[in-house]
Amino acid sequence: MFELDLRSRKPIYEQLVDRLKQLIINNVLEKDEKLPSVRVLAQQLSINPNTIQKAYRELEAQGYIYSVKGKGSFVNHIMMTDNSAEIKKVKEQLKKQIAEALFLGITIEELEKLITEVEQSVTRGDEDDSSSERR
Amino acid sequence: MFELDLRSRKPIYEQLVDRLKQLIINNVLEKDEKLPSVRVLAQQLSINPNTIQKAYRELEAQGYIYSVKGKGSFVNHIMMTDNSAEIKKVKEQLKKQIAEALFLGITIEELEKLITEVEQSVTRGDEDDSSSERR
Amino acid sequence: MFELDLRSRKPIYEQLVDRLKQLIINNVLEKDEKLPSVRVLAQQLSINPNTIQKAYRELEAQGYIYSVKGKGSFVNHIMMTDNSAEIKKVKEQLKKQIAEALFLGITIEELEKLITEVEQSVTRGDEDDSSSERR
Amino acid sequence: MFELDLRSRKPIYEQLVDRLKQLIINNVLEKDEKLPSVRVLAQQLSINPNTIQKAYRELEAQGYIYSVKGKGSFVNHIMMTDNSAEIKKVKEQLKKQIAEALFLGITIEELEKLITEVEQSVTRGDEDDSSSERR
DNA sequence: GTGGTCTAGACCACA
DNA sequence: GTGGTCTAGACCACT
Question: Cβ–Cβ of C85/B88 closer than 8 Å?
């Protein structure tokens, strides 16, 4: 379910963050669903609990989950937090990458195809696995 | 012109790479234009020359510029190198970010608007400024 | 084991890259095998760690190894990266060298013998030692 | 006729050496033919004469041409010099690159096709232009 | 302990 | 003057 790549250049905790984000975004983890406890997940993935901790903290900071003392961590999903800053950041990043894509010769049609692809897989509740990344 | 953030988590040389890519993509730096010499730029930004070199080297590896020993570094721009690998990478990243954008509530219409915006500013030779990022 | 030539015109880090490539290609270093750490190798060869790092970084860029921050550097070997650009480059270089070989009087038969020789030694897991080069 | 690439990473004098080697190998410059004088060639290519000098010196050292004081430089072609060292060197280099080619997935058939290709273009007296090289 | 970044300063090769 | 390599030594992030 998590398929961490211990060999990837990307720190494990970041992989966890990204993976969980994906699961939340794609509705695999539903609103208010409880995430596995730090200890359990750590054991499952045979990873240091600190690493899990760090990932959960990061997700909370970004508004994807919320933690309740003594109960655990839960999916936020509707993003009650103030997105505006986040949205602005994502848009800026997107602009940069779109510019790079166009520069590399990717056509607008291809870009739009990408969008509809992603959009469909998201609404279907797919799990679009397109990870790896090994600079 | 460069606005480096020495305190950022993102390495200085990477900031430089991104910035220069932007300038090249947006045609602010034109084909075969000479980049500032390693030492000059280093002095301007009060940064160690080695750091500049690392950035230039990376840009060269990615096909954006070329460097000649006793002469200097120049914009490549026509991308004669085989960039299929680069394209694949960019597409994957775009997919991830589109997914995140949709999750944050950005609509497809907004995404398409972004594309046309970028497309126009690029062909106009604009420079879309929008940096920051202090993770 | 490494036999660096500090006086050669070829940079030390390039010598290292070539040598390690050879070891990987000839299966002396096996898949996922851990390379000596930057510092250890630096001490062994009495060379600055930065130089080793440069070599490792280059090998990573070319897809031969991968490095993970707190863990070490490891052999990639399966070449999952898109190497079409690399292939093209190697082919062009080969053409030049074949032309030179023919000029020097090496016959086509000899060239074909070379190929089968190399092919066999590679599949056998040999290590064909034949360095030097002091331009 | 020379098509130097002033933008290439490869030093100009080396480009000259390679180019002249090619011309000699492909019989475009015939035995005992006089090469253009340093000054003339320098003017033609609008290049510093020192650079030409360096190239000619290198070619002479490698046995491709011979220089007669006061007369000029001439093509050697039959290689009266002792090739054995040169041959050995080329063979070793070839072995390395064949190994790399095989590792990258190039098939033996492709390699043999390369050989016949080169062989034909050489005997035809072609000018196989496959330069560039822009690391 | 691992890789990664950065600095300061030296020296070389090319034009 | 240009890029390129190398050293020595410091500090950071991840495990």
Answer: no
Higher pLDDT, A50 or C119: C119
Whether B93 and B53 share a structural domain: no
DSSP per residue over chain C, as a string? Answer: -----TTSSS-HHHHHHHHHHHHHHTTSSPTTPBPPPHHHHHHHTT--HHHHHHHHHHHHHTTSEEEETTTEEEE--S--S--HHHHHHHHHHHHHHHHHHHHTT--HHHHHHHHHHHHHHHHHT----------
Cross-chain residue pair C85–B85, CB shorter than 8 Å:
yes
When divided into structural domains, chain B yields a total of 2
Same domain, A17 and A73: yes
Give the nucleotide nearest to A6 (CA→C1'): F15
Same-domain status, C33 and C46? yes
* Chain B: closest CA distance from residue C55 (Å): 14
pLDDT, averaged in runs of 10, over chain A (135 residues): 72 84 77 85 83 86 81 73 75 92 92 93 60 38
Evaluate if residue C21 carries a pLDDT over 90.
Answer: yes
- Which residues in chain C have Cβ-Cβ distances shorter than 8 Å to B84? 82, 84-85
Establish if C134 belongs to a structural domain: no
Is the CB of residue C25 less than 8 Å from the CB of residue C118?
no
Q: Of A88-97, C82-91, D104-113, which gets the smallest average pLDDT?
A: C82-91
Residue at B135 is within a domain: no
Chain B interface disruption, residue of C62, C82, C83, C92, most B CBs within 10 A: C82
Q: Token pair for residue C38?
A: 């930057």
C50 CB below 7 A from strand F atoms:
yes
Pick out the nucleotide with least CA–C1' distance to C49. F7
> A16: Cβ under 7 Å from strand F?
no
Range of the domain at B61: 12-80
Assess if residue C20 is contained within a domain. Answer: yes
Q: B80-128: per-residue pLDDT in tens?
A: 666 777 888 889 889 988 988 887 888 999 999 999 999 998 877 666 5
Residues D26 and D75 in one domain: yes
pTM: 0.75
**Domain check: are A21 and A74 in the same one?**
yes
CA distance D68 to chain B (A): 31
Do D92 and D52 lie in a common domain?
Answer: no
Final residue of a domain: which of A47, A62, A80? A80
Cα separations (Å) of D13 from A78, C10, D54, D135?
A: 65, 17, 6, 17
Residues A76 and A16 in one domain: yes
Check whether residue A89 and residue A71 sit in a common domain: no
